[in-house]
Backbone:
């Protein structure tokens, strides 16, 4: 997921990535029964995304334009996924202002397949059905409509790990070895206990974690059933894993372990370079975001260790083409190329977005990241992807998650009691899902 992604994935199941499948060819356009939308061969393909998908940063747009003379790619980007989704809904309702390619966060894909299939192109029209074996089954199935339409091609998935600042750990007298830390925080109780140790000797103006919202999100990412069950029933209110994640997050807030930063805010962005927090639960796509915010000065100060409590998934996205797009065939050729194994592998090694393509996963198994102290990111995130549960997602999955993390922010930043904040969250969920 790119960022903001979260920071921000009848019922469908998504999540665990099958680490099998042969390496497939990456380049070239698929066969299409649609005619080109450009008579002279020159076209500007518009791409509208949220967070940081990393295509521009990894040089993929420039590479595509070189391979396809006459094609220019113009990207617009909204940092906060919630703002992006609201704007997209307005434009879908009006039928205007839509890009040729629109990004869809995994937590929204059920809404697309179940409620908005008529707003997006069925990519089978352009030959997408031939790509099915290229993707993990769960990733492909999640973007399949009830009548078999292919409504998006998968970009990344969000296997989870823990990112941490080795320089801050050293100043607080904590170990920095990723294997030793993984043993110390094998459980979330262990993670919070180590956080309390950190707080005793922490450098000035440095907290254990960025926000309790990120703690909550990463914890629920380890569960198969979170907000909905497999029948489509909303179950979050009495679901034990949700309660456990809520209680751990409010405990962290009460213990003063958080920097009290709203994710995706300007203050949160600035905190990466300021050393305002020592640990950050991070899905693979967060690596590129950290690099972008912390800059060159952060190189070698960060490392990555196995996540407490087991494997999980946070986020991941799709590329879709609206029915109202101006350049549908050219847009399909682009998204097919961007999501092919070679490009997904390159994106991971440069930006950290973990592939949903089985062929790409095989290519990155031995990858290390010098920015993160040569952490074996291919192994860490590959193991997490293999072990992550297949998550049940409902139509309003992202809306429910947003209301709960908003309520946690009230506990964290304003001192609202957990009980009062939970009551507010329930009311807001009712409004959001009604």
Residues:
């Amino acid at each position: 997921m790119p960022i903001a992604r979260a920071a921000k994935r009848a019922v469908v199941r998504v999540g665990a990535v099958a680490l099998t499948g042969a390496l497939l060819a990456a380049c070239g356009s698929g066969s299409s029964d649609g005619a080109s939308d450009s008579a002279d061969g020159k076209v500007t393909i518009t791409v509208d995304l949220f967070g940081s998908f990393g295509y521009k940063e990894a040089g993929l747009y420039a590479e595509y334009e070189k391979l396809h003379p006459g094609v220019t790619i113009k990207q617009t980007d909204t940092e906060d996924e919630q703002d992006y989704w609201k704007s997209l809904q307005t434009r879908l309702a009006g039928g205007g202002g839509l890009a040729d390619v629109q990004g869809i966060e995994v937590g929204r894909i059920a809404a697309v397949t179940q409620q908005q299939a008529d707003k997006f192109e069925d990519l089978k029209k352009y030959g997408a059905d031939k790509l099915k074996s290229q993707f993990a089954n769960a990733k492909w199935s999640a973007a399949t409509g009830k009548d078999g339409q292919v409504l998006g091609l998968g970009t990344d998935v969000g296997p989870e790990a823990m990112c941490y600042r080795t320089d801050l750990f050293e100043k607080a007298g904590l170990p920095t070895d990723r294997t030793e830390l993984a043993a110390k925080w094998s459980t979330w109780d262990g993670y919070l206990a180590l956080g309390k140790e950190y707080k005793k000797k922490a450098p000035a103006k440095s907290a254990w974690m960025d926000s309790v919202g990120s703690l909550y999100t990463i914890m629920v990412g380890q569960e198969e059933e979170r907000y909905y069950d497999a029948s489509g029933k909303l179950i979050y209110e009495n679901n034990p894993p949700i309660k456990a994640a809520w209680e751990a997050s409010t405990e962290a807030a009460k213990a003063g372990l958080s920097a009290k930063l709203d994710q995706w805010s300007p203050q949160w962005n600035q905190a990466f370079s300021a050393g305002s927090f020592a640990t950050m639960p991070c899905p693979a796509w967060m690596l590129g975001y950290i690099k972008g915010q912390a800059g060159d000065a952060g190189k070698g100060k960060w490392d990555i260790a196995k996540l407490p409590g087991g494997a999980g998934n946070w986020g991941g996205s799709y590329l879709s083409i609206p029915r109202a797009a101006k350049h549908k065939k050219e847009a399909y050729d682009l998204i097919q190329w961007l999501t092919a194994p070679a490009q997904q592998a390159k994106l991971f090694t440069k930006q950290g977005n973990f592939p949903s393509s089985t062929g790409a996963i095989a290519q990155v198994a031995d990858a290390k990241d010098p920015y993160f102290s040569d952490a074996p990111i291919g192994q860490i995130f590959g193991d997490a992807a293999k072990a992550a549960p297949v998550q049940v997602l409902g139509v309003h999955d992202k809306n429910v998650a947003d209301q709960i993390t908003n309520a946690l922010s009230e506990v964290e930043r304003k001192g609202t009691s957990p009980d009062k904040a939970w009551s507010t969250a329930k009311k807001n969920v009712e409004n959001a899902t009604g």
Notes: Confidence is low (pLDDT under 50) at residues 3-35.
